[in-house]
Amino acid sequence: MNALIDKLHNICKEYPLKEKILIVDTHSIGQEIKQAYVNEYGHVIQLKTNTVHNLAVDVMNQKSNHVLPLIEQSIGTQFIYHILKDLNENKELSYFLDLEVTPSFSSSIHQSISQLRLAGYTKDTLKKEAFISSEKADDFQRIMNRYEEALRQYQFMDKAHLFREASNLARPQNNAVFIMQSNLTLTQLSHDFLQQFLSKNVFKLPLPAVYGVSIPEHEEKDLRSIEWSAPTAFSYLYHVEELPKKPNITLFTAKTEEVEIKQVLQQIKQSEAALDDTVIFYPKAEPYITTIYQLSEKYQIPVTFEDGLSILYSQPGRLVAGLIKWLKEDYNVRTFIEMMNEGLIELPEEAPSKSKISKYLRDAKVGWSQSRYSRQLEQLKIQMQQKQIKAENEELQEYYQKQVNDITWLKTWFQRLFRSLPIVGSELNYQDILQGISTMVKKHAKTTSILDELAKAELIEEMEAIFPYANETLRPFEAFQKVRELLFMLRVHKSGPKPGYLHVGSYYNGIYHNRKNVFIVGLDNHAFPGESNEDPLILDKERKQLNGFMPILQENSTNNLFAMLQLLAQTQGNVFFSYCTFSINDNRTVNPAHIFLQGYRMITENPNADFEELAKLESPLTSPATFEAKDYWNQLLEKDANIRLEQELLNSYQNLVFGEEAEEARTEGEFTHFDGKVNIDRDLFDPRQNEKLVLSSGRLERLATCPYSYFLENILKLKPIEETEFDPYSWLDAPTRGSLLHSIFESYYKTLDGEKPTYKKHLETILTIAKKKIDEQKAIQPPPSERVLEREMNDIYQCCRIFLKEEESYSEGYQAKYFEHAFGLNGAEPATITLPAGETIQVRGIVDRVDQSNDGHFHIIDYKTGSTYNYHDKNQFRGGRQLQHFIYALAIEEHLKLEAGTVKESSYYFPSVKGLGERYVRNQDNVLRTNGLDILEKLIDVIKHGHFSMTDNADDCTFCDFKAVCRRELYPQETLKQKQMDSLAEGVQKFKGVRAYE
Ligand code: SF4
């Protein structure tokens, strides 16, 4: 900036005591120019900087008695949204008639109206013939008319109004000296105002001449014009043939943006350049801002961001994103837990721990919906109170009391929280949502940094500004979209360059930067010079006819190139160009921008160098410098994927040693500790030794299906996280639907009082019972919609019909005797089964029904409401996977004190639409009983030996919850087979014995 500073110095010398006003696009530019001047001359006398906008505001404040507040962009967009909706509903639009009025469309129209007004047009003066169609011109005029009315009604002024009024009031300021930056950004109205305001004493600061590119053309009297100074080396970037002296320029590339930025940091480190003498410019903000922000947070590098940071980097911003998701999913518990675990919600000191809150919400099966939080937590509280009453000792009582207190607290806390949040229905009030989110941010947003504090204040301010104009009913999707557009575009912590800080910003605003080391990153051909797309609302053709300094969008890329050249030509130090050669998102190679090639031509002093030559530049995939452990590992991986870890390293990473050991053991043919071999405590886990261990048939079947899953679930006590989810397409899950049908069948039979079921006579009875039970279930668990309820009700009624029809014919030979008979549960004694070796085990369960045949023997019925897929007449045990029929037969005989052999049949009965009343009967003869007892003994021996091998059939894994833990699929088939044949592992052999029973 030598020429510029010299000129400024001459002006200061000529007018040492006069007030000098430097007019610039932004205050940040003013600061940079002043700093450059101070660096050169040590001090500035009477030099103030100001923007055209602020000068107009000053004039208004000084000369007008009634200054209206300036309208915020968000409020202006909201006005336009209402105007468009209204015009659309009343069919008053013609050109925009079929367009859906969305928040983003309103925002674009607001921008167009603002541009038209700043170009000097009002609804009365709009140059309608400039538009390609008269309908479009009419629509713009109508919208403008309503917008101007809204400004008057709500007592706001927009920028156009400000400049127009200020122009009327402004008088030439003859006692000050005005100095203007070249190429000032002006609209027609701000230009008119400035012309009224400026005195004759006006100077312009020069920019270095540049060659080989298009430059903005303005007449000399146009205040946007440029004064040129002598060229510098970079002025010749597009005229390399005439390059007088090679500037300091370095080029580099990388395969990821992160590696590119790490190279920047490495260059800064190596050159020992001061951070506040360095600036990073980008043509496209993302992903560079994110990458630089993350690295600067990690390594505590002080950085200022010209464009600020997305509100979503802050905790309050992420809380708002989480809240929108929470509302959208009708208060899904999983989303609440995610927000809480991410630390976005400030919980009061007396709150239970986060893990306890998650557990209570899951145990209560809250799932979703405001009302369920209260109701389900209340139910959980009652369950805990009942457990407390039954608790055997004081310690246990205290434990349950603590849980009751926690749950009560949680229920009250949610009730208070929901007071400010809207109930999600088919329509939502926009104001209510904003109010709710704002209250949540005020009361519960966690803040741990300045960024968080700023974001919190900004979010609240933005929402409060819009409240008075947001009383409207919207569809949920539309409402959430509006909140997102209002809040997620906010950027916080914007800052100009500061002493001690590395500065990061867009090259477009960087022409007057004042730093010696300039990094321009992201110079690929997509990002720079950028595309010159037309604005579909006001075409360039229309803009040219309208004139009024409206920007011509097709000139964007030439303007961008000019801005970049100006920036470079002003730079007096080292320049670095870089770009990322690969796009991970699109999985494709990325080509450099043309300016990058020009940089290469400049360095090589070869004006004919081409892209092919440029492609030879090295493009590292990993950071050549080690900033963090990840870089070290990536470098090793890149060099040799199969590198052996050295012992020295392994000493520091004990878990790697364990991992290697496990991996090796899993590849051996032997059954090892890494495949389910455990030193078991028989006193605890063997039910023959531990009488308190009462097993259910389900648990024994699990052991027979896959001993390894039994080990994970019952020895290690692993449990999958069970989420209760809202499903718009289904009401009852399979277990709830099953219990409902069970209780209908039971209630129906109890009404018979010994009478035989008759389809015609009893259909009404069973359907009435079903209706009553469904209504009860509806009260506990509301269905997602009437349509879903109707579908599932019809299915239940159909099951009842199938059941009754089937019972009518079946009951000719049988009489139902016992219903829901429990043993080892609900206070009933467990049943005892004696194994072949004479030892006993205790079992528990609930038998759906016990019938007695006409000839006096007993028949056990187990209702199944799912598919018959795994049931066949000839497979009685399915390799141990179906044991219940046999266990229940023994248990009932023992429990009802019946003679051995009295239960002759045990059947799986499918009174459902899928099962069509099918019965799979297992005759409990001597052979079946002998085989069943042998299976049970072998299974218990599996526990005794602690040999919990994995299933020999991958089909068993299909619906297993532990797939991710056991990773059976990673074993080579052959190795798995060898392990399952290990003759030295007795438990494994026993398991093989179980499988032999079909
Ligand atoms: S995934 Fe398969 S092998 Fe693993 S625990 Fe489950 S059933 Fe057993």
TrEMBL record:
Highest taxon in the source lineage: Bacteria
Name listed for the protein in its UniProt record: ATP-dependent helicase/nuclease subunit B
GO MF, any single term: exonuclease activity
Keywords: ATP-binding, Coiled coil, DNA damage, DNA repair, DNA-binding, Exonuclease, Helicase, Hydrolase, Nuclease, Nucleotide-binding
Lineage of the species this protein comes from: Bacteria, Bacillati, Bacillota, Bacilli, Bacillales
Residues covered by the PD-(D/E)XK endonuclease-like domain: 695-967
EC number: 3.1.-.-, 3.6.4.12
The keyword Ligase belongs to this UniProt entry's keyword annotation: no
Family matches, as Gene3D superfamilies: 1.10.10.160, 3.90.320.10, P-loop containing nucleotide triphosphate hydrolases
Coiled-coil regions, chain positions: 370-402
GO biological process terms held by the UniProt record: DNA repair
Pfam families assigned: PDDEXK_1 (PF12705)
